[in-house]
Specification:
The protein is mainly beta. The protein has a domain of 244 residues: Porin (Beta Barrel). 8% of the residues lie in helices and 49% in strands. Strands 2-4-5-6-7-8-9-10-11-12-13-14-15-16-17-18 form a 16-stranded antiparallel barrel. A hairpin with a 7-residue loop joins strand 2 and strand 3.
Length: 386
């Protein structure tokens, strides 16, 4: 088994000295003889010194971590220093067309000191784990646990704070949140079509959606007995390199601990300019719930807009950003009883202290009730990959 990526072998011909004919050849015959010898030597080297054949399985490992400090209202969370999430990404190529990927995380628990005996200090979790069969660019099949391909952020920025520009995720897609079902367990089919330079991509899946606790996935089965369906389509046109436009539909049936069942339908869209100067991200999602046997349908809406720009000065190490986000929950929605409303702004800057380490600072303003009080907080983070 091979660990990490191997560099291709360097042929002996690349190190062969090349003679200067004006300095070493005294006659045409001598030059021709030397050229022939060099040619034979290179040909023999090319025949015997090929790059080594790939070995399977070939295992690759990457890790992420972060450390944080916060000063905020108690209603919004804890203040002080904290250790962030420790994450490992693992990928193993099992053959030329088959590979396995897993994402493991360890998150500090807020209730670690309570209970008898005390709760574990960290909460371990398998965030993603799937095996993928690559038939071609047009058709790939994966089976396992995924980040649900409903919108852009959820499939672009996985666990590992270093990956994203900001400290915080938009609240509509935060890990452990209840608005968007972040995880999905099942089968996913995906592919890409050139489509005359439009580069149309699709992802379609069927599996377990939300669990009985709606912030958790159905890891060990489908609580409602009905599968969840998801379809995501997006384009990355050649003529506007860096632009991505897409939309998705998600259908599920939710069984609450009370025994009530609801149809859930989600329609989402995104527009992203995937460049550093500037970086623009906008997403919107509408979620409806309808109780089985009841005529009432509730509707909930969330969106955010984020802009960032990597400054050309100072070695292009500084990247200020701003995000506005909004969540409106229907007060009669039983499924989203514990989901808070939000109007919030986030101001921040990222400084890439090195290739693999970033320092971030954020100031957040939050309003949970219309015409209600605002809360604010300061946040600092160092995030890294290794």
């Amino acid at each position: 088994m091979a660990l990490l990526i191997r560099s291709p072998a360097i042929s002996a011909a690349q190190h062969s000295p090349v003679s200067d004919s004006s300095a070493t050849c005294l006659a045409d015959a001598a030059c021709e003889s030397q050229d022939t010898a060099d040619h034979v030597e290179r040909a023999q080297s090319d025949q015997t010194d090929h790059p080594a054949a790939p070995e399977y399985p070939s295992f690759h490992l990457q890790g992420f971590g972060d450390f944080d400090v916060a000063s905020q209202a108690r209603s919004e969370g804890a203040s002080g220093f904290s250790e962030g999430q420790f994450v490992l990404h693992m990928m193993s190529e099992l053959s030329r067309r088959v590979n396995f990927f897993a994402e493991l995380s360890w998150t500090p628990r807020a209730d670690a000191e309570t209970g008898s005996p005390p709760a574990p200090t960290y909460n371990p979790a398998v965030e993603r784990a799937f095996i993928r069969f690559d038939h071609s660019d047009l058709f790939k099949v994966s089976i396992g646990k995924f980040h649900t391909p409903i919108n852009w952020w959820n499939t672009e920025f996985h666990h590992g704070q270093w990956l994203q520009t900001t400290i915080s995720r938009p609240e509509m897609v935060e890990f452990g949140g209840k608005f968007i079902p972040v995880h999905f367990v099942g089968i996913l089919v995906e592919g890409a079509l050139p489509a005359g330079g439009w580069n149309v991509n699709y992802q379609a899946g069927v599996g377990n959606g939300r669990g009985t606790v709606i912030s958790l996935p159905g890891d060990i089965g489908n609580a409602s007995g009905a599968p969840a369906w998801v379809l995501n389509v997006f384009t990355k046109p050649d003529r506007a390199f860096g632009l991505r436009l897409g939309g998705s539909v998600y259908l599920d049936r939710i069984l609450l601990p009370t025994g009530q069942e609801f149809h859930e339908h989600i329609v989402a869209a995104h527009a992203v300019w995937q460049k550093e100067n500037p970086e623009l991200i906008a997403e919107i999602a509408s979620i409806g719930h309808e109780e089985l046997g009841e005529p009432l349908t509730t509707s909930n809406l969330a969106y955010y807009i984020q802009a960032a720009y990597r400054l050309p000065q100072f070695g292009q190490l500084w990247k200020p950003y701003y995000r506005f986000e909004h969540i409106h929950v229907d007060p009669t929605d039983v499924v989203f009883q514990a989901v808070p409303n939000l109007d919030g702004s986030t101001f921040g800057v990222r400084y890439d202290i090195s290739t693999y380490v970033a320092l971030k600072g954020e100031y957040r303003v939050r309003q949970r009730v219309n015409s209600g009080p605002f809360t604010n907080g300061w946040f600092m983070q160092t995030s890294f990959t290794f």
